């Protein structure tokens, strides 16, 4: 997850710099940046679901945790993560999709003159919301389990450590839910314009630093 956090922050840093100096990058630059940030975020969603699934297995089926997330299992999850990144980044890098950063309104925007741009935009909406929905199902199951066996949940140091990990993953999912909702429905709260785009950009930047912040808070 940290890799995708950093990749997004690097692109946001560059777009912020472009905005300050009013630099209009060319096609290749925006193609590379779009591929990095788009592939990175869609994979970040996938990793968020894996985190939720890991917490679900650990709390609801602890005997299976070392099998599903064994050394071999983790390699499979890593390969799946790489495959998801390759899929989304590959589509974004193709000649069928293009998006660029508009320095005058602080916003990334698809160019719908490219054949797959609109389709890709619609697909990722359902992918992102679907990923959030699946993650919530896992956490609801975990919460039910904790309430049913709450006396056992806090009985050991290991359980308390696992609860910290649960909080970490849960907060990320909550943030991801809010972020994805506002990304697609922010017009309900803030009218279209620069202020709206600044709010969204700050949420993306916050997304990149959230995991690190949680680690610092939970491990004081």
UniProtKB/TrEMBL annotation:
<keyword id="KW-0472">Membrane</keyword>
<protein>
    <recommendedName>
        <fullName>7TM GPCR serpentine receptor class x (Srx) domain-containing protein</fullName>
    </recommendedName>
</protein>
<keyword id="KW-1133">Transmembrane helix</keyword>
<feature type="transmembrane region" description="Helical">
    <location>
        <begin position="165"/>
        <end position="186"/>
    </location>
</feature>
<feature type="domain" description="7TM GPCR serpentine receptor class x (Srx)">
    <location>
        <begin position="17"/>
        <end position="192"/>
    </location>
</feature>
<dbReference type="Pfam" id="PF10328">
    <property type="entry name" value="7TM_GPCR_Srx"/>
</dbReference>
<feature type="transmembrane region" description="Helical">
    <location>
        <begin position="76"/>
        <end position="94"/>
    </location>
</feature>
<feature type="transmembrane region" description="Helical">
    <location>
        <begin position="124"/>
        <end position="144"/>
    </location>
</feature>
<dbReference type="InterPro" id="IPR019430">
    <property type="entry name" value="7TM_GPCR_serpentine_rcpt_Srx"/>
</dbReference>
<feature type="transmembrane region" description="Helical">
    <location>
        <begin position="43"/>
        <end position="64"/>
    </location>
</feature>
<keyword id="KW-0812">Transmembrane</keyword>
<feature type="transmembrane region" description="Helical">
    <location>
        <begin position="198"/>
        <end position="218"/>
    </location>
</feature>
């Amino acid at each position: 997850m940290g890799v995708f956090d950093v990749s997004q922050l690097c692109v946001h840093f560059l777009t912020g710099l472009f905005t300050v100096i009013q630099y209009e990058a060319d096609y290749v630059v925006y193609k590379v940046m779009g591929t990095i940030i788009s592939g990175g975020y869609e994979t970040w969603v996938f990793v968020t679901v894996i985190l939720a699934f890991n917490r679900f297995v650990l709390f609801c089926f602890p005997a299976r945790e070392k099998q599903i997330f064994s050394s071999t299992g983790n390699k499979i999850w890593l390969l799946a993560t790489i495959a998801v990144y390759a899929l989304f980044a590959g589509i974004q890098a193709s000649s069928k999709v293009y998006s660029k950063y508009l320095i005058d309104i602080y916003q990334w925007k698809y160019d719908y003159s490219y054949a797959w741009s609109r389709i890709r935009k619609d697909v990722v909406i359902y992918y992102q919301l679907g990923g959030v929905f699946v993650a919530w199902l896992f956490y609801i199951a975990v919460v039910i389990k904790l309430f049913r066996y709450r006396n056992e949940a806090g009985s050991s140091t290991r359980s308390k450590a696992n609860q910290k990990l649960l909080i970490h993953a849960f907060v990320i999912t909550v943030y991801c839910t809010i972020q994805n909702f506002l990304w697609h429905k922010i017009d309900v709260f803030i009218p279209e314009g620069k202020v709206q785009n600044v709010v969204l950009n700050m949420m993306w930047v916050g997304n990149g630093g959230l995991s690190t912040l949680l680690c610092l808070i939970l491990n004081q």
